[in-house]
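Lesson 9: reading folded outputs for more than one chain in a single document. The general rule is that every protein is listed as its sequence immediately followed by its structure tokens, and records are never interleaved. Here is the first one.
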Amino acid sequence: MLGFLGGTGPEGMGLALRLGLAGEPVFIGSRDAARATAAGESLRAQGVTTDVQGGLNEEAAERADTVVVAVPFEAQRAVLVPLRERLRGKIVLDTAVALTRTGGVFELLHVEEGSAALQAQALLPGSNMVAAFQTISARDLLDAPHPVEGDVVVCADDAAAKRLVMGLAERIPALRAVDGGGLAGSRYVEGLTPLLLNVNRLYKARTAIRIVGI
């Protein structure tokens, strides 16, 4: 089962929807159990027929085999630290990007550890951290009738964890997983996100990346 921390937000809901439609059982976690239950009902209403459950973030961390961190970067530390023991030994997929917006322009925030995913690994030393999906639009993920096109660059130090997340990414039609090397590479992938958001603003579009030549 996939557990989603902060699963009622756009990124968590979008990934849970797409992976649920692909046949993965999902557990939506939230600080508000009622919101999580309502989110699960929304997924079922959109055609997810696999096991869908909702509850507190603590339950998602406890019950899931693989856990997706879908909270905003500014909430990451507060959410992860109390769950450290529940997440020990598990694969944790971090989707966060440290962003700020000034005058309509997106910029990458400085993170002492090097990236949001590297911070998450420092907070969860007993977990197998993977970084992915930072360049995939939550709005596109939520738009279920239309395919999500692009490449998902997956960075991790643990080879088995990386393979698992690459496999999950490719369960979503029209997405391709690309091996981005070790977790340190997440700093470069996260840096693409403000670039794409600024391009979206200029062109009034929703963009993604595609790596050619492989």
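And here is the second record, again sequence then tokens.
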Amino acid sequence: MKKRSYLFAALPFIVLAGMFEILPVLTTIVKSFLSEGGGGLTLENYITAFTKPLYLSAIKNSLMISLASAAIGLLVAFVAGQAACERGGRAKRVFMSILNMVSNFSGVPLAFSFIILFGNAGVVTIIGQTLDIKALAEFPLYTVWGLMLTYIYFQIPLATLLLIPAFDSIKKEWKEAVSLMGGTNITFWIKVGIPVLLPSLLGTFSTLFANAIAAYATAYALLMNNYSILPIRIAEQFKGDIVQRPEFGSALAVILMAIMVISMAATQAVTKKTGGKRA
């Protein structure tokens, strides 16, 4: 009887999840195997995605930017999270408040802020021209490097927020034990700290990768269609000014979902393997 009451209480959540998550995913998968115009079943959409240079480069560019921004964001967040936890007290609380505020700053407002700072008539660009600092005066904002910078910017706060609870699990007694045995701080992190944090590091990297590869608003506001990445190529299939190809766009969306699922599955497999070895 209790199981039925719990199921009844969860019914609204099940209905919402089915309507807004499960049903759209299933519809997208089915539509990706249909020919243009809703005809018969076909694999042409997937063949086009993996053979045409435009869409193949979009997949490669998305993977490159996502992997690079996730790795750099994780590295910076590791140092920031460690420093915040070691400092502790009021400094940590202030740092956490700033992180919570900055982590919500993304999308079009983030792109607009970078344009104000580093655009052709941006504040930093004008300062660089005035002081004859070439690196600032000719900052490549409207290129892949500028896009990478914006991605790294919104990756670092998210990664730091995810890692700080993991750093809190590191006990001071472990550091003292390593020190008594003649080990240095570097020895502690190589032999104890990083192995303990490895599941959290891998999970955070997977989250950052998924966060970057699905990002659309920032990239579109900054570069529009001038740089080929998967989310932009998906969007243009549904809101193209001349031709709309929802079936092909669904195939690209399924490819994006598959990449994210493979990434999470690989992370879980490596986490279980390393966890088993430590055990």
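What the second record shows: The mean pLDDT is 85.
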